[in-house]
TrEMBL record:
It holds the Pfam family PepSY_TM. It comes from the Bacteria. Keywords: Membrane, Transmembrane, Transmembrane helix. InterPro entries: PepSY-ass_TM. This is PepSY domain-containing protein. The keyword Transmembrane applies. The chain crosses the membrane at residues 29-51, 227-251, 271-296, 498-518.
Length: 522
């Protein structure tokens, strides 16, 4: 027993000495593995505040003005009969080159709308949607004279119009201007999606390559490969930060100090240690929150799959839109909505006059770029079969959409949870941040173990966002540990400056470590 008691401390001492002997070597090896990814991520982190704040281009108008919709002189049902259209998906009223027009979605949800004069019923040109997109882009840019270099309809995201913009399909309208202004607009409903100039487009491409590593997915053909590679490297970065903290924070006395002023290796170690200790915490917060954020990317965001826009038989419009008891001076637009087995006219009304000029909010839809709050238009629902007003129609529609989307995701045999709460959301805040782009939406809270909350956009019948507890934890982690929203009360400029300073510190310690390695080798 005495021999065993003497052997155990000796073995522990041997292990401790081995760890101490190899700690520096491990730190150096894992640091070398991750030095290039760290440089990429920190450089792109420095780029982000520039492209999203300080060097972000400006545009003259960010939302359409709250105006009454053009009142159609010709019934919708007559236009449908005139052109032998027996079905449709949706309808809106627009001003096309100053003319009142019906905008009809007849084919699939991503198909081009067709346009018909609301006075004569005549079909407008086949490229009417492109012309309407150019009309919208010129309004947002407040540029009626510059030529249009190109107008391209996008039905998928690309290198410049990323998934973060959420809205599809959109038109990409590029102006013949020195700054290369490009305006992305959605035509149904009409709204600004985003806008870029040549400088910001270059920033976006650089950030995508250096920070998101989309090139890995392009090379491998797999998002999973990209995510797993980033997770592996972020885990190693965390290990490098921890080992550096142990070496330079707790075991520094065991490593060589600068012998004299000419001892460059010793002084490099000292500076590497000082900067490393200063940024150790932010390195861990950047890497850990980034890893959590990337981990959730293993499950692709499929919110765009969820839209309720069924094919509707034209003969279901027993009562025409023009026969509804509407105050057309207050009608902002109309649409169709089908739920609970009934077809309804969805009537978006202008806010009351006292709200138009006092709250400073644009009305209608917004993408959060840069508009972050809207004055939600009141919505009334009229049965297309009888013309009767449906009480609490907006809430019933939102409940239907949320239930349908949950069932679609969970499968046909899953139980449908009860709805605990609904609430209108007209601004970005908390778990429904500007990253979701759509406003106004209705928040529908479901009674599930993960507190599932669906945000639905009644104007389009789309799912704007789904938030479960895991998403909430990740959102808080990313907001406070990666983007430093904890100092948001000091203003966006201060927050971005702090973020850039932290990224620059991590970059500096990586470069010092690389320089130290080169000096030691030589």
């Amino acid at each position: 027993m005495q021999t065993l008691d003497q052997t155990a401390p000796a073995r522990r001492g041997t292990i401790r000495q081995s760890v101490q002997r190899h700690m520096y070597r491990w730190h150096r090896v894992i640091g070398l593995i991750t030095v290039l990814p760290v440089i990429c991520w920190t450089l792109s982190g420095l780029l982000h505040p520039l492209m999203s704040n300080w060097l972000r281009p400006k545009i003259a108008r960010e939302a359409l003005p709250p105006l009454p919709a053009p009142r159609p002189a010709l019934p919708l049902t007559q236009v449908l009969r005139q052109h032998n259209l027996t079905q449709l998906r949706n309808v809106r009223l627009v001003r096309w080159r100053g003319q009142p027009a019906y905008q009809l979605l007849i084919d699939g949800p991503t198909a081009r709308p067709r346009y018909f004069n609301a006075t004569s019923g005549a079909a407008l040109p086949a490229d009417a949607d492109r012309q309407y997109a150019e009309q919208l882009a010129r309004y947002f840019a407040q540029d009626s004279t510059t030529g249009i270099r190109r107008a391209e309809r996008l039905t998928r995201f690309d290198a410049e119009y990323k998934f973060v913009n959420r809205l599809l399909p959109v038109w990409k309208v590029t102006f013949e201007r020195p700054d290369g202004l490009t305006v992305y607009v959605e035509t149904m409903p009409a709204r600004l999606a985003t806008f870029n100039n040549a400088t910001r487009a270059a920033f976006i491409r650089s950030f995508d390559a250096l920070h998101s590593w989309s090139w890995v997915e392009w090379l491998s053909g797999s998002n999973t490969v990209r995510v797993l590679l980033m997770l592996a490297l972020l885990t190693i970065i965390i290990g490098s930060a921890v080992s550096g903290l142990v070496i330079y924070g707790f075991m520094w006395g065991r490593f060589r100090r600068p012998r004299n002023a000419a001892d460059k290796v010793g002084w490099l170690r000292k500076y590497h240690r000082a900067v490393g200790l200063a940024v150790a915490l932010v390195t861990l917060t950047f890497a850990s929150s980034g890893a959590f954020h990337v981990y959730l990317k293993l499950h692709p965001d499929e919110r765009l799959r969820y839209q309720h826009a069924p094919i509707l038989a034209a003969d279901r419009l027993a009562v025409d839109l023009t026969q509804l008891p509407l105050d057309w001076a207050r009608v902002q637009n109309v649409a169709l909505a089908e739920f609970d087995g009934e077809l309804y006219y969805q009537v978006f009304q202008l806010p009351a006059e006292d709200a138009d000029h006092t709250n400073g909010k644009p009305t209608g839809a917004s993408t959060g770029q840069p508009v972050e709050v809207v004055s939600a238009a009141p919505i009334s629902y009229y049965r297309a079969s009888t013309g009767q007003l449906l009480l609490e129609g907006a809430e019933r529609h939102a409940r239907f959409l949320a239930t349908r989307f949950f069932q679609q995701a969970a499968g046909p045999y899953a139980a449908t949870p009860a709805i605990e709460q609904t609430a209108l959301v007209d601004h970005f805040e908390g778990e429904y941040g500007f990253i979701n782009k759509r406003l106004p939406v209705v928040k529908v809270v479901l009674r599930t173990p993960s507190q599932t909350t669906l945000y639905v956009e009644p104007a389009t019948g789309r799912l704007a966002a789904r938030v479960d507890n895991l998403d909430r934890y990740e959102g808080l982690s990313f907001a406070f540990l990666h983007k430093y929203h904890a100092v948001g009360s000091l203003g966006k400029n201060i927050r971005d400056a702090i973020t850039m300073l932290a990224a620059a510190g991590v970059l500096a310690v990586s470069l010092l470590g690389l320089w130290l390695f080169v000096k030691v080798k030589h």
